[in-house]
Amino acid sequence: MKILVSADMEGATGVTWPADVLPGTPQWERCRAMFTSDVNAAVLGFYDGGADEVLVNEAHWTMRNLLLEELDPRAEMITGRHKSLSMVEGVQHGDVDGVAFVGYHTGAGAEGVLAHTYLANSLTGVWLDGQRASEGVLNARVVAEYGVPVILVTGDDLTCADAAGYAPGARTVAVKDHVSRYAAVCRAPARTAADIRAAAAEAVKLAVRHEPVRDGPHTVEVEFDAEHLSMAATVVPGVERTGERRIAYTSGTMYEGIRTFKAVTTVVSAALEEHYG
Question: Does pTM surpass 0.70?
């Protein structure tokens, strides 16, 4: 049995504001240890529950944040950027039985600690087939195309509530409770590690592959906070403006859909100006 851990940082223990997750800051250095603790707790739990392999995919920002030297030596880690499936890289090879979203968060325009979708700001909302979509929603639909269930989600309490919509059977662990976008009631790392480990051990029972879900085509809509960003996004083939600050595109599969979404956010990032966005 093989488990893939998609590890993001905004939903990690103790993380509450931008400096906690921005590479190179003193706060980021401090929070890397708590991020690694959350991931290790999940790895330990999966092995406790009977997993044979655990592959961790680094999914935050530069994708070089986890402390490899502190990782459970039984696990392996994909680190670095420019991967075919970005946050869920590794699921496409046909040998993964379950996926865990560790350190996840709510989506752009929603309540939640450091809520966003791919870009820290600039996106004010993302919709998949008419329903508001977080990174969890998007990635869950991708892994479903490979017949792999989401079995564990960790993050703030609102992230756990979001997960109930896209992975209703998954185990969830709230490592903190939302107060505002930049504040939370946090649990200590020792407590969250114990909670995540216990939930992961239980989640292994849910790691049962199913028939691939191929229910496309899928339409993705994105709203930006400035009109020039919607215009910039249209350089991506298939992307059209549907409003002053909105774009939309349709893809036959979520594999294509998430790759187009990545292209849109990359282009939009390049169109941002330092002070005016």
Answer: yes
